[in-house]
Amino acid sequence: MASHIGRLPIALPKGVEITVDGDKVTAKGPKGSQECIIPEGIEVKQGEGVLEVVPEDPGAKGASARHGLARALVASIVQGVSSGFDKKLEIIGTGYKVTAKGPDLDFALGYSHDIPVKAPEGITFTVADATHLTVSGINKQQVGEVAAQIRKLRPPEPYKGKGIRYAGEHVRRKAGKAGK
Questions:
Q1: What pTM was estimated for this model as a whole?
Q2: Where would I find the beta strands (DSSP E) of the chain?
């Protein structure tokens, strides 16, 4: 049985070149180049402006899961080199703010000291204002990991909602102390 996700073809945007070498798929585009390793038992076929991910033995144990995984990995690197990925973060709280120091960031989050954050290789930070930040890059996993590390500096708390949260994230609020 084939994966529902794995069956979907991957459209190649203009300017993206794909090279398939055994179990390694390399994508080059306007934002850079990336490669991924395809799981065993999965084959990537290249057509006219389309990539197809096909299992070698659809009846094998775990073939459906590997099929969907392989298609998602290839689609991720194709989107990364063509348009990239970004995560938006919001900072909520009195006196909480972020400032850009060149490619790096400096957070004031209510602690006795500011917290510096260095930009990893392949990641760029954009500060729209003191309370809005965007993490961008071509690697989906790396962008998500860096955004999660920044959010972990001061996660949103449930009583007042103060902290760093993803844009559009809903923080479930709790009732405070009941008065007498």
A1: 0.87
A2: 10-11, 17-21, 24-29, 32-37, 42-46, 50-55, 85-92, 97-101, 104-108, 115-117, 123-129, 132-137, 163-166
